[in-house]
Amino acid sequence: MKIRVYEIARKLNSKSSVIIKKLNDFGIEAKSNFSGIEEKDAERFMKQWSEKKKSAIKEVKSKTKKVVTDNKNTKKEMHKEKPKTDPKPQENSRTKRRFRKEAFIEAVTPQKLKTKKKYKKTEKEQEENEESNILKLSEGITVFELAEKLNVDFSEIISKFFELGVMLRKNDIVDLEASKIIADEYGFKVEEEVIKSTKFADLMDIEDKKEDLQPRHPIVTVMGHVDHGKTSILDAIKTTNVAQKEAGGITQHMAAYSVKVKGKYITFLDTPGHEAFTEMRARGAQITDIVILVVAADDGVMPQTIEAINHSKAAGVPIVVAINKIDKPNANPDRVIQELSNYGIISEEWGGENIFVKVSAKKHLGINDLLESILLQAEVMELTANPNKRAKAVVVESKLDKRMGPIATVVVKEGTLRQGDFYIVGAHYGKARALMGNNNKKVKKVLPSFATVITGIHGVPEAGDTLIVVKDEQSAKKIAEERQREIKKVMLNKNGISLENIFEQVKEGEIQELPIILKTDVNGSVEAIDAALSKLSTDEVSVKLIHSGVGAITKSDINLASASNAIVLGFNVRPTQEALKISKDMHIDVRTYSVIYDIIDDIKKSLSGLLSPEEKEEAIGRAEVRDTFKVPKIGIVAGCYVTYGKVTRNARIRILRDGVIIHDGPIMSLKRFKDDVSEVKQGYECGIGVENFNDIKAGDFIEAYVINKIQREL
Fold first, then answer.
1. Which of 1, 501, 593, 599 has the fewest CB atoms lying closer than 10 Å?
2. Strand duo 290-296 + 264-269: pairing
3. CATH topology of domain 214-384
4. What CATH code would you report for 133-192?
5. Integer Cα distance of 708 and 226 in angstroms
6. pLDDT at 62
7. Domain spanning 392-471, CATH architecture
């Protein structure tokens, strides 16, 4: 049990500030009047305080006697020397008490405070003291920033919110009203800080004149299923003779690099695939011009191949297919062409628009044909940019370098980036102290579609952040600060598309189509739901299935939903723990069903403005089954470890195996060791008995949820 500092101060009849100082001198850490002190330490401190006070009082009494005696003697001498008209000072109990008080203060006050002169505060000083208790906060402050302003540890603020029933993390945004409640506990009065917005004249997209545009080379991302040879193809391109002949070669450590083919360049983004591709697009960074879809000739179309196709289509990026591993004995390129046609990727030989190239990354077969095909596709696209303007670039990768500080690999989209340019990138600003190209050689300028490593950033930006050159450092700093405030406001007020607000958005003309991502337990369900959804389109809004697949709802699905402003629907599947967290952070509407009719009915009602749910499901926790035990007269009990949130006795639970729901029902028993408990929180083990279900196995996950009743709005 812990005792707060202010409680100790009250017991000792002293000020909290004095107690905090004395506690720290005593070797007990205390930061504010709300700091908790262990009961044993607090009792030990109060006992020592009392003993010191007693000894101080004894010393005061002896000093008082001496002072009074000396004072009497002094008065006698003064009485002899001074005329009789002088008033005779009176010795009374009040004088003695004053002497005792002054002597006691002398005994307990730290030496450095004794040297300070006492004086009466002026009205101006009193006003300044009152002003020091006023805390100016802007909308969108984080927990960490609030703690800094209150001069306390952020963990203390998190604890206070927890006491109010709000679960927050260090970088979560705090509502202004909630900040006022917390600040009031520390004796501060909160005033909203009104900040004048910075002009964004330097950031406005000015349309280029046709005569200023010049051809630029393509920027390419390689995507496909795992183990189909994406990395092998990139390695083959890096080491191909075409690249080796070029002065400087290719930088192996850059996240983007260029190769030269017949006098023309191609820039490749060495990213982890469709997930990073979509994360960047979700941040507004449409950087890729062409996607190379790698499909193994011996394996064919796989789940991640389909995801890559859907992500590319959602971005509106043309696809060049590289059929890899043609050197294998069981290779069947024709089967790949056939399978891809089912997903709208049709080769030119079949009358389609997609270029197909057969390659072997291992034996360096067809690599030059692939590079030439990319240039051919780029020629059709007629890619252009204006190099004679302030640069705009996109961050591909960033990190904190031990020697150079924050650095970022960027690809210039338009304009020319020059050494010495001032820029903003995301919510940070900086000066291009150095630009590094191939083989880390310093360059003076970087033209459109080329990549460079840039230094001089005041912070580490995120992949997908836009870098924009501005006129001077002062402008860059002001704009970066404004962007930080805007990002906070967006995060605070962000409302993604959801079934509840579709009708309003349709009515106001904000959306003309409803994008949907669908994940189910089996392929047959995808076809059935897709067919039913396609019939729901109206004159005002159309229902568009942008991605579907089998299995749990993953982080990749949430990223695609964020980039496409889509709703995620799950049929007999659940989101992974990571996907669940990200969907809440991004305000993505994720809904799961076990009856197809409910999906169709919900979307039909939402499109007609009739959706008004009476009940809303809330996942409150998740536990991993680590072992099972057979208990007589009860059945199988699962030994679990709570990995997220909490599991409560009155909650309903789902049992998930490989992301698929295998049981849904109430909890029969919840125990900690031998004791029945009402709830078990994250980080603790427990035993869970499941009502009417014994087929539970180690490795399964138990998801606890509650049904909240939402009152209908009239």
1. 1
2. unpaired
3. Rossmann fold (3.40.50)
4. 1.10.10
5. 41
6. 56
7. Beta Barrel (2.40)
| CA 266 – CA 268 distance, rounded (Å) | 6
Vertex 643, ends 639 and 646: CA angle to 5°? 85
Angle value at C-alpha 347, between 532 and 229, nearest 5 degrees: 95
Q: Which residues of 670-708 are buried (b: 16+ CB within 10 A; e: fewer)?
A: beeeeeebebbeeeeebbbbbeebeebeeebbbbbbeee
Fold classified for 618-709: Elongation Factor Tu (Ef-tu); domain 3 (2.40.30)
Regions of the chain with pLDDT less than 50: 60-61, 63-65, 67-68, 71-72, 74-75, 78-79, 81-90, 101, 104-105, 107-121, 123-130, 196-202, 241-253, 610, 711-714
The fraction of the chain above a pLDDT of 70, given in percent, is 75
User: Would you state the structure tokens that stand for residue 235, as one six-digit string?
Assistant: 């390695």
What pLDDT sits at residue 113?
42
Report the DSSP pairing between strands 466-470 and 392-401.
antiparallel
pLDDT of residue 373: 93
φ, ψ for residue 54, nearest 5 deg: -60, -45
**Do residues 365 and 325 touch, judged by C-beta distance below 8 A?**
no
Q: Which amino acid is at 689?
A: G
Query: Which 3 state secondary structure label does DSSP give 220?
Result: strand
Q: Which two tokens stand for residue 711?
A: 């009152």
Alpha-helical (H) ranges within 406-472 are none
Residue 547 in contact with residue 556, Cβ under 8 Å? Answer: no
* Tokens at 9, concatenated: 């101060």
Query: Per-residue DSSP letters for 389-405?
Result: SB-EEEEEEEEEETTTE
Helices 523-533, 596-607: inter-axial angle, 10-degree rounding? 30
**pLDDT value of residue 507:** 55
- The rounded Cα 670 to chain-centroid distance in angstroms is 33
Long-range contacts formed by 247-252: CB under 8 A, 24+ apart: 248/437, 248/438, 248/439, 248/441, 249/438, 249/439, 250/438, 251/437, 251/438, 251/439, 251/440
Q: Which of the 8 DSSP states describes residue 349?
A: G
